[in-house]
Amino acid sequence: MMTAELADGVGVAWAPVALRVKELEEQLSSMRDSLICAFNQLLDLKDLNTGYHSTRLAEWAVRVAQELGMEESVLKDVEVAALLHDIGKIGVPDAILRKPSRLTVEEYALMKKHPEYGWAVARLFPGLERTSFYILHHHEGYDGSGYPGGLQRDEIPIGARIVSVIDAFDAMVSSRPYRQGLPFEEAMRRLVEASDTQFDPVVVQCFVCIAQTEMPAVFEATGTSTTVVL
Ligand SMILES: [Fe+2]
After folding, report:
1. Which of 105, 119, 182, 224 has the fewest CB within 10 Å, making it most exposed?
2. From the CA of 110, how far away is ligand 1's center (Å)?
3. How far is CA 45 from the centre of its chain?
4. Is residue 199 part of a domain?
C-alpha cells in the first residue's frame, strides 16, 4: 500500500484516498450526464430539438474535433456543446421562436440573446465551464461578422467553430411547419460557399468529409434518397 509521511511523521494510506477521489469523480461525471439529459428533455419540451438529429450531429462534432487533433479531455465538452448549444432559446419568447415569417429588428435582437442566456445557465454547473464558452460563441462568424463578441478566426474557441457548422447544417436540413428542409447536397454546397466568411474552412472541410461518408448509411437506414433525414 502506498503511504506518505505527514509533517508529524504519521503515515497516511493513499489507496483509500485515491479510491474516494475516483468515487467522487464518477459521481460528478454521472451528475453531469444526468444534467445533460435533463437539459435535453427541456429542449424537447420546448420543441427546440430536431429529434434524434442532435445526437447524430453531436457524434459528428466529436469526429470533427478528433480529426482536428483536439485533446481527448475536451471531446466531451464539444459533444455537450453540440447537444445543448441552443439551450438559451428557452429564454426567448415562443412568439418569436415560432414566428413563421421574417423577424422584426427588435425580435431578431432578442433571438440573438440566446447564446448569452445559454452561457449564463451552463457556466453555473461544475464541469461545463468550457462547454459554456462554446455555447456563448456558437454564432460568431469566422470573418468577425457574428455575435455576441464579434470575434474572428482563432479568437473564436475551436469548439464553438465546430458547433457553428453543426448548427447551420442542422438548421438547413431540418423541416419546419412552414418550410421543407434543404436537400443534403444543397446544405453542403452552402456550407462550402460560406467557408472563410461565416465558417472556419478547415472545420467545414472536415465536416463535409465526415457527413458525405456517413450519409449513404443514413439514407439506407431511413429509406430516403432525396431529402436528408439525419
Ligand atoms: Fe443558436
Report:
1. 105
2. 12
3. 19
4. yes
In a domain, 188, yes or no: yes
The answer to whether residue 7 sits within a structural domain is no
Q: Ligand 1 centroid to 89 CA: how many Å?
A: 8
- Asked if 184 and 192 count as a contact pair (C-beta separation under 8 A), the reply is no
pLDDT in tens, the chain (230 residues): 444 444 455 555 677 788 888 888 888 888 888 888 888 888 878 777 654 467 778 888 999 999 999 999 899 999 999 999 999 999 999 999 888 888 999 999 999 999 999 999 999 988 899 999 999 999 999 999 999 999 999 999 999 999 999 989 988 888 777 778 888 889 999 999 999 999 999 999 999 999 888 776 665 554 444 444 44
Residue 198 inside a domain? The answer is yes
Number of domains in the chain: 1
The whole-model pTM stands at 0.82
User: Which CATH number does the domain housing residue 113 bear?
Assistant: 1.10.3210.10
How much distance in Å is there from the Cα of 14 to the middle of ligand 1?
A: 46
**Span from the CA of 29 to the centroid of ligand 1 (angstroms):** 26
Ligand 1 centroid, distance to 98 Cα (angstroms): 14
> In terms of residue numbers, what domain contains 90?
50-222
